[in-house]
Amino acid sequence: MATKPHTESHLAGMPTCMLVTVGCAKNEVDTDRMRALLLAAGFQETLAPDEADVIIVNTCSFLGVATQESVETVLSLAQVGTGEDDRAAIIMCGCVPSRYGDELAAELPEVDAFVASDEEDGIVTVVSEVLGLEPPATASSLSALRTVEGASAYVKISDGCDRWCTFCAIPAIRGPYASRPREEIADEVRMLMEGGVREVVLVGQDTGVWGSDLPNGRDLAWLLEELAKIVMPYHGWIRVLYLQPEGMTDRLIRVLRDVDAVLPYIDIPVQHCAAHVLADMGRTGSRAELESLFARLRAEIPGLVLRTTGLVGFPGETEDDFEELCEFIEDVGFDYVSVFAYSAEEGTIAATLPNQLDDAELMDRTQRLQDIAERLGFSSTARRIGDEFDVIIDGVEETDDGLELIGHTWFQAPDCDGAVHIEAGEATVGDIVTCTMVDAFCYELVGVVTTRH
Fold first, then answer.
1. How far are the Cα atoms of 327, 396, 408, 432 from residue 426, in angstroms, in the given order?
2. Same-domain pairing of 118 and 161
3. For residue 230, which of 207, 253, 200 has the smallest C-alpha distance?
4. What is the pLDDT of residues 369-399, one digit of tens each?
5. 187, 335, 343, 443: least surrounded by Cβ within 10 Å?
């Protein structure tokens, strides 16, 4: 398969790579890891596909639509170039190769190499082989690296999952649960803080059970206390995403409440509340149990912010079940709710169940719950008007009225909970400023700087 000769690189020296991510924050971390390994090995990076010698697409396959988006992204990028002889080589990484394996080569002849999720640390060798180069001598000895330049950074503390929810293919794609060792996580957090990051967001398929597969009996609460010692000298924040109800131990609750560097922000994707729907999903609990949990969390952690996820239209979900989910979401009064329509994923138990909802009913229920989610979220945001909060500056945007600083405060997870808009001034990306919130629109807030730290 003819590709652009590496000697035609648009940048001097080593060939150029373009990295594209499809999917969630966990994929962003994996992409950044590959970027760091490639840069450390001497490769160049470009953001322009027509300047790339190789394009690396890190794919998602959590849902069918994500798989489709991943494939369409690859096919679109494979068309870049003025002819067959000068197109970039294409490498497909991540969940799609992990899920479909050997089937892909025949289906996607446009792709020059496939790299499963657990093979991504070998990206330097793969890129070298695709471009007909000798792999750099350092390729096998490169250590954990990141290239994050912003004020917030995702840090993976685990991979894989042991839950086997009936609607989810992640255990089959990512394999069994595996905690990253504390030393690796701590080294990465320390490096990020030294590089100017002020918030680390801990992610994994199931963060609450971190340490359960390690021999020393440590748990997530202990890890948070250890990481807090690292970030506190930098006045940094630690945020945890993707907890499960079973992971909310007494000790973890105390850490979320009492350790200043750990934000009192809890993201628990409950998916549903009807007991029989949860059981069919391969999950545990009931509406009464979940309401009791969230009431306890609110009582024990003053000012707690709650985020959750609702999965609508699971096979066998009746109208009464759906109404119960809506009532539950409103009664708990979550600050943020992500709403997903059920998708029959290939290879999952749920895809074989009877009583699959038709698309019209599925979309109707999804929109109805989305309306509730927005009403709760907009109201929660508006209640912040008049209050004063520290804001981490994430970036600068050009608006019709000039430059505007974009940041977020402790109750806004980066990339998903809205932002704080501030008139441009002396603050720059990475600064922490104190702002009074003067207005709100949807999930967004408008802040006026009162103090720059």
1. 46, 12, 17, 12
2. no
3. 200
4. 999 999 999 999 999 999 999 999 998 888 8
5. 187
Average pLDDT of the residues in 292-321: 97
Residues 6+ apart with CB under 8 A from 299: none
User: Per the structure, how many domains does the chain have?
Assistant: 3
Q: Looking at residue 5, what is its pLDDT?
A: 43
Model pTM score: 0.85
- Do 259 and 126 sit in the same domain of this protein? no
For residue 376, what is the domain's CATH number?
3.80.30.20
The answer on 332 and 225 residing in a single domain is: yes
Of 24, 276, 297, the residue nearest 170 (C-alpha): 24
Full residue range of the structural domain in which residue 376 is found: 152-382
Rounded to whole angstroms, how far apart are CA atoms 451 and 449? 6
pLDDT tens by residue, 403-425: 899 999 999 999 889 999 998 88
Answer yes or no: are the C-beta atoms of 71 and 96 closer than 8 Å.
yes
What separation in angstroms does the CA of 48 have from each of 10, 45, 257?
10, 9, 45
At a CB cut-off of 8 Å and minimum separation 6, what does 433 contact? 390, 391, 393, 407, 422, 427, 449, 451, 452, 453
Q: Does residue 8 carry a pLDDT above 50?
A: no
